[in-house]
């Protein structure tokens, strides 16, 4: 049994196809198939049912794959141990990030981090919060930037910054013209919020102290631009993260209204497994973000809303 065989087998399981798996592993399909077959022969079991389309994993194969992931993950940690011991900041770092943070945060730190850490191969992909925690626990990503607290016993949450919420209220809306808003002002407002799957949606629902949709929340969308455009052309308003509000046109910025203190906000953290060993790179990433975010957010007195 070899680590290579386990990696090939995991790739087949992930892609459900030997040909695609071989392409992802940069080997020929016969080579990959032969190595997977050798593993099955050594274990004396069948991991994949090749007679079905799409390919199916056998019951015992599912159990083997769980262990294979652990073995491959632990084997990769040897290089991480050496790097940490030497204080080397280098290697591959797979980072997940929630979609409501990536458009505003990535442009602030990505270029600076890459210039300062030329030996780091940074791989970033957007995921929902639920997917992030699943992928961290499976070892598919090293860390993530997400809204917290989520209180997962296997995950360390290291806060990066607190991002206030700000109301977007067009001139035709009943709340337009106010110097500031109180949370209770939202009780009778026609709010547009993000669709299911976004933790920012949950934070707004918690802000308004309701557990489900009511007549206030008849429309929903997957991005803030749509919510803004709908608000401009209908009887609605919406709520934005502060950094996103800074990207608005000068005309649209006139529709922004702050909340009274303590300002509702979200906590954005870098999260990773308690067993994670790529801490030199993760700490370098955290340091870069902390430096660039300093001075970007003007608020101090905030009330963190739960993303659950």
Protein model, in words:
Helix content is 42%, strand content 22%. With 308 residues, it is an alpha/beta fold. The protein has 3 domains: 3-82, Winged helix-like DNA-binding domain superfamily/Winged helix DNA-binding domain (Arc Repressor Mutant, subunit A, Orthogonal Bundle); 88-161 and 266-304, Periplasmic binding protein-like II (D-Maltodextrin-Binding Protein, domain 2, 3-Layer(aba) Sandwich), CATH 3.40.190.10; 163-265, Periplasmic binding protein-like II (D-Maltodextrin-Binding Protein, domain 2, 3-Layer(aba) Sandwich). The strands form 2 sheets. Strands 3, 4, 5, 6, 7, 8, 9, 10, 11, 12 and 13 form an 11-stranded mixed β-sheet that branches. A two-stranded antiparallel ribbon has the order 1-2. α1 packs across α2, α1 (3-15) crosses α4 (59-86) and α2 packs across α3. The two termini are 42 Å apart. Mean pLDDT is 87; it is low at 211-218.
Summarize the structure.
With 308 residues, the chain is an alpha/beta fold.
Tell me roughly what share of residues is in helical segments: 40-55%
Low-confidence stretches: 211-218
Strand tally: 13
Sheet/helix structural class: alpha/beta
CATH class of the largest domain: Alpha Beta
Q: How many domains is the backbone divided into?
A: 3
CATH topology of the largest domain: D-Maltodextrin-Binding Protein, domain 2
Biggest beta sheet attributes? 11 strands, mixed
* Tally of helical segments: 11
Broad shape: elongated
CATH superfamily label of the largest domain = Periplasmic binding protein-like II
Order of helices and strands: HHHEEHEHEHEEEEHEHEHHEEHE
CATH architectural designation of the largest domain: 3-Layer(aba) Sandwich
- Mean pLDDT across residues: 87
Radius of gyration: 23 Å
> Alpha-carbon distance between the termini?
42 Å
Fraction in beta strands: 15-25%
């Amino acid at each position: 049994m070899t680590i290579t065989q386990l990696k090939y087998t995991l790739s087949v399981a992930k892609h459900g196809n030997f040909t695609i798996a071989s392409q992802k592993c940069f080997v020929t399909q016969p080579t990959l198939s032969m190595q997977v077959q050798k593993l099955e022969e050594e274990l004396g079991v069948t991991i994949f049912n090749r007679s079905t389309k799409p390919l199916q994993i056998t019951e015992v194969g599912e159990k083997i794959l769980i262990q294979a992931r652990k073995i491959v993950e632990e084997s990769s940690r040897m290089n991480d141990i050496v790097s940490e011991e030497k204080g080397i900041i280098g290697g591959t770092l797979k980072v997940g990030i929630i979609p409501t943070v990536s458009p505003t945060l990535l442009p602030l730190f990505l270029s600076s981090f890459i210039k300062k850490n030329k030996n780091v191969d940074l791989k970033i992909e957007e995921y929902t919060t639920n997917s992030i925690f699943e992928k961290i626990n499976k070892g598919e990503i090293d860390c993530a930037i997400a809204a917290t607290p989520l209180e997962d016993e296997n995950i360390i949450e290291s806060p990066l910054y607190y991002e206030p919420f700000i109301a977007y209220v067009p001139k035709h809306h009943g709340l337009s013209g106010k110097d500031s808003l109180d949370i209770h002002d939202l009780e009778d407002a026609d709010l547009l919020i993000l669709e299911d799957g976004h933790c920012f949606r949950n934070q707004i629902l918690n802000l308004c102290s309701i557990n489900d949709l009511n007549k206030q929340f008849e429309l929903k969308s997957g991005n803030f631009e749509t919510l803004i455009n709908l608000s401009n052309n209908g009887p609605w308003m919406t709520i934005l993260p502060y950094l996103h509000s800074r990207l608005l046109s000068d005309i649209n910025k006139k529709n922004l209204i702050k909340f009274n203190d303590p300002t509702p906000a979200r906590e954005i953290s870098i999260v990773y497994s308690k067993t994670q060993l790529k801490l030199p790179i993760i700490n370098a990433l955290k340091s870069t973000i902390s430096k660039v975010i300093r001075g970007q957010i003007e608020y101090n007195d905030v009330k963190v809303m739960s993303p659950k």
